[in-house]
Structures are given as structure tokens and as C-alpha cells.
Amino acid sequence: MTRHAHDEQEESSGTRMRLDKWLWAARFFKTRALATEAINGGKIHLNGQRAKPGKEIGTGARLQISKDQYLWDITVTALNAQRRPASEAALLYEETPESRAKRQTEVDRRKLDREMGVQPDQRPDKKDRRVIHRFKREMGEA
Predict the structure, then answer these.
(1) Alpha-carbon gap, residue 26 to 16, rounded angstroms
(2) Cys-Cys with 56: which of 5, 16, 102, 135 at CB 3.0–4.6 Å?
(3) Which CATH superfamily is 1-95 part of?
(4) Is residue 80 packed enough to be buried (19+ CB in 10 Å), middle (13-18) or exposed (0-12)?
């Protein structure tokens, strides 16, 4: 059996899978290219260490995924070579309760910031700059 044929057989049996393909199938990224970019950028850690996109993973692997200021700490529970609906993709991993709580806290904080009118990482517009300049002038005079 050739090496390539062996890889295909192993992947179809569901025991091992490429990391970038699993992240795509689990719906953490819209494309495999985005998953590969995140892995190469150090946003994905496999069992506490950086990994390459082609790294083979299996069930029981621990992943730390950092994406859009959110952090997931998950354990791979299943492999699926095809991208399925989100409800099925969520069954491919199990998130730790601490990770879920931290992420929910961050979601709530961002929601509250939006309601209060705070826009993170946004430059002041013309009106905001006028308010800043007026404040600075008043502070300088007092």
C-alpha cells in the first residue's frame, strides 16, 4: 500500500485528520486557507504547543483557539472530513466550562460597550475631535 493510499484510508476511517481541515469542518473558519493562516500565525495551539496546518490530530486532542478577541479551550471529540451544519459541527468538540464562561463574559462586556456607545479600536470622527479639543482647551484655562 502506498503512503498516499494509506493516508486516504486512515482519513476515511476517521482516526486521524489534518488540523486545518478539522478547524474548517468544525466551523471555526470559513475556509481552509483562513484556518491555515491562523495556524501559521500562532493563533492555534495543539496540546499546549504551536502546530503546523498539516499536523495530524485525533480524538482527545486539546486545542486552544484564539479568534477575534475570543479564546476557546476545547477537546476534540470526533472527526468529520465534511463540513456539516453548525449544529452537527458543535458535536465535534467539547469546550471546557471555564472557557465558555470567559467567552460569555467577553460577549456580555462587548454588548454592554455597544449599548453605552463605546466603539473599541475606532478613531474619533470630526465631532469627537471637536469635543476633545474643547475639553483640552478648558482644562488648559482652568
Answers:
(1) 15
(2) 16
(3) RNA-binding S4 domain (3.10.290.10)
(4) middle
Answer whether 44's CB lies under 8 Å from 100's CB: no
Which regions of the chain carry the CATH code 3.10.290.10? 1-95
Q: Over its length of 142 residues, how does the chain's per-residue pLDDT go in tens digits?
A: 444 444 443 344 458 999 999 999 999 999 999 999 999 999 999 999 999 999 999 999 999 999 988 999 999 999 998 999 999 999 999 999 999 999 999 999 888 888 887 666 678 889 989 999 999 998 886 5
Backbone dihedral angles phi then psi of residue 64, each to the nearest 5 degrees: -115, 120
Q: Which three cell numbers stand for residue 51?
A: 502546530
